[in-house]
Amino acid sequence: MLTWKELISLSKKGNLKPERRVERTDAEWRLQLSEEQFRITRQKGTEAPHSGALCSMYDEGQYHCICCDSPLFDSTIKFESGSGWPSFTQPIQKNAIKYDKDVSFGMIRIEAMCNTCDAHLGHVFPDGPEPSGLRYCINSESMKIADRS
C-alpha cells in the first residue's frame, strides 16, 4: 500500500517503470479526445467540481485512462470525499500512476498522471481515509469505467 511519504519520494526521485508506454503528438491526441478531455489530460486542466459523470457513479468495474486505456483504479477503492471529484485511496497497481510535485496556486500537492501516457488525471492529497490516508482526486474526463466482465 502506497503512503504519502512514498509518493513524496517518487515525485522527487523518480517514478516506477510503467508496464508500457504510449506516446502521441498533440494532433493525434486531438483526433482521439473531446476538447474537454484534451484540455484536462494533455493541458493539465480541471473540470468544475460536481460536474463529472463519474463523480457519483459507484458501479463495479475498473477506471481506465481515457487516453491509453490503461487500468488506473478499481471501484472497490472509490469513496465519497465530498470534494466534487471521483476519489480513490490507491491505484490499481503501484506503477499505474506517475507522480510530480505541484506547487501551483499556493498549495503543495502531488499531481497524478497516467504512468503509461502522461495524461493529467488530478492530484493526490494526504487527507483520505485509513489505512492509506490518501485521496486521489481525479477528473472524470480523464477516465472511463470498464466493466469487469
What does this entry look like structurally?
Helices cover 17% and strands 26% of the residues. With 149 residues, the chain is an alpha+beta fold. The protein has one domain: Metal Binding Protein, Guanine Nucleotide Exchange Factor, Chain A, CATH 2.170.150.20. The strands form 2 sheets. A 6-stranded antiparallel sheet has the order 3-4-8-7-6-5. It has a 3-stranded antiparallel sheet with strand order 2-1-9, with no helix packed on it. It starts with a helix and ends with a strand.
Helices and strands in order:
Elements: H1 4-13, H2 26-32, H3 35-43, E1 62-65, E2 71-74, E3 78-79, E4 87-88, E5 97-102, E6 109-114, E7 120-125, E8 135-138, E9 143-146
Antiparallel strand pairs: 1-2, 1-9, 3-4, 4-8, 5-6, 6-7, 7-8
| CATH-defined architecture | Beta Complex
Structural domain tally: 1
Q: Calculate the terminal CA-CA distance, rounded to whole Å.
A: 26 Å
Biggest β-sheet: strands ordered side by side in the sheet: 3-4-8-7-6-5
CATH fold-type name: Metal Binding Protein, Guanine Nucleotide Exchange Factor, Chain A
Quaternary organisation? single chain
What coarse outline follows from CA principal-axis ratios? globular
What is the total tally of β strands? 9
